[in-house]
Write the structure tokens for this entry.
Amino acid sequence: QVQLIESGGGLVQDGGSLRLSCTASGRTVSNFVLGWFRQAPGKERDFVAAILYDARTATHADSVKGRFTISRDNAKNTVYLQMNRLKPEDTAVYYCAAKFRGTQEYASWGQGTQVTVSS
């Protein structure tokens, strides 16, 4: 069990950048896979990126590959999502999530932070 709080969302113009942060409390995150998901109005929640315990191995959805970069700092219990060259279709609520090592599902979720990209 871990509590997650996202921050860093906001309004940005097409082509701009934002960095999202997610800080965990209750437990250290060294044994958790940490991920980012997003959900636009009327749509399902989609996977964005995830990073493993080693803070090096990461995967990104095809829709954001080359533009977004996930990273983590286990000493700070924090995961980041650097978002560059943002597009209007990136507009969504972004959620941080944690999956304990050895489990299949993400069990802990943050409350979300809004990212809006204007045309």
Q: What stands out?
A: The chain is about 0% helix and 55% strand.
